Amino acid sequence: MATAARLTAVAVLALAVFASVASAQSNGLGFTFVPKHVVQGEDARVSVSVRPAGARCTIGVRYQSGAAQPGLATAVASGGHASWAWRVPADVQAGPARTTVHCAGAGTITRMLVIVGRLVEPKITVLKQGFSTRPQFGGSTRLSYGLILHNASAKDAMSVTVQTNFVMGDNNLLGTDTQRIDGIAATGDYALGQVISFPGAAPITRLEVVIKVDHYDAPSLHAPTLANIHLVPQTYDPSWLGTIEGEIQNTDPVLTLQSASLSAVVFDSAGNILGGGSGYAFQSLPPGAREFIQLSNGFDVIPMEKAASLLLSVTSKWLQPGT
User: Fold this and answer.
1) Which range in 25-29, 52-56, 87-91, 300-304 is most confidently predicted, on average pLDDT?
2) Rounded (5°) CA angle 106-112-117
3) What is the CB neighbour count within 10 angstroms for residue 87?
4) For residue range 38-61, what is the model confidence (pLDDT) as tens digits?
């Protein structure tokens, strides 16, 4: 009797194992693709293999903050496979995210993936650029150019190097000019104007600008006040722009303005850049003092009749009281 009972138990166990194997063979669910990580704001994709064929499958993605990914539709397994693709929100919290897939008749599986925070590198962009040329005696050419640079960072961009290439119609370079700016204030614009000379003709068709920032600092840059800034034609030939003149005022209540570097970009009536130039103010100004300024480098290439407005930028050096 004991032997018979034992045989019956073995038979039942074997039957259960067979049934389990048969079930596993006819039903199944597994991931075939899950990314290890996805960057904020980029696309993600998940794929699974499914048995039985034609099963209806749903997917849920829950991020580190507890927020669920919206817009994930039900998929019907085709050829034993189902997949989903979606865009990870750019503002979703970085960290592990739980991906759960459920297929009717096949079960439920879960896998983790990591959402990586997007590192947005601060950068300086060129909002506008333009130039003018003027032939000189002896066959040489002077070129006056201007750039409006924008600091997109919430920090001050310090020790900014600007390389400007002068490109001809065949895409070859005729020259390169490099300028260094002490700093561009956080979220601010800087008008870079300069003039260069070529020994012969200068059939320049466009400018090519490369910008490098040494480092970024917490916002601290500030500038003196500019007043009565205006365009002045050349004395000996009024058809050309001669200088940019006006006043610089130290409106800081404490600091002394030691010196200032000034750069200007000139526009026509439509807002196009005609060129630019630069100048300096070396007079030490205590709080409340002001000084006449005159920028004369680079503007004689610009036709006076076209010059309508300007943008003037200042980088300044300050002294603490008692220094």
Assistant:
1) 300-304
2) 145
3) 12
4) 988 899 999 999 998 889 999 999
* Dihedral sign for Cα atoms in the order 253, 187, 216, 209: negative
**Angle, CA 308 vertex, CA 305 and CA 314 arms, to 5°:** 125
Tokens 């750039």 belong to which residue?
147
- 240 DSSP assignment: B
Under a CB-based contact definition with an 8 Å cutoff, are residues 299 and 274 in contact?
Answer: no
Residue 230 to residue 248: CA distance in whole angstroms:
13
Residue type, 211: I
Q: What are phi and psi of 6, to 5 degrees?
A: -65, -45
* Mean of pLDDT over the chain: 89
H-state helical runs in the chain: 2-26
Contacts of 20 by beta carbon, 8 Å cutoff, 6+ apart: none
User: What DSSP line would sit under 262-287, residue for residue?
Assistant: EEEEEE-TTS-EEEEEEEEE---B-T
List of residues 6+ apart from 134 with CB closer than 8 A: 141, 142, 144, 240, 300, 301
Domains and CATH numbers, the chain: 28-116 (2.60.40.10), 124-319 (2.60.40.10)
Interatomic CA distance for residues 89 and 86, integer angstroms: 9
Task: Please tell me the distance from the alpha carbon of residue 34 to that of residue 38, in angstroms, as a whole number.
Answer: 10
Q: Which candidate, 223, 151, 212, places its Cα nearest to that of 186?
A: 151
pTM beyond 0.70: no
Distance CA 182, CA 262 (A): 11
